[in-house]
Structure prediction request, 110 residues.
Amino acid sequence: RDQRAKTALKHIGPAVLNGGFSTFLAFVLLATSRSHVFLSFFKIFFLVVIFGLYNGLIVLPLLFTLFGPRSYNASSTDELNSKPNGEEMEPLKPVSSPTKPNPESETVSS
Prediction:
């Protein structure tokens, strides 16, 4: 779990940080306004961006490290994830939906 969280932050963390920073740059000029409406909007938007960055870069990775799903290569003592020959588990594959018959392909004979 720790390695998965580190890898996720390494690959996705900079994009999340850049998104928060660019959003901040988009509305930072509202802070210089004298209008109460614009100042209120700036404060709310600023807190939303800070709260989102804090949750995305600190809280959620920490929670997923502590309580997240088990890794694919869990220890051999784990009964749920271990295979008898010690191989790693493969990720789950999506379930394909059953195909519906095409009504145009059926020919009606009279």
About this structure: The CA atoms of residues 30 and 38 lie 6 Å apart.
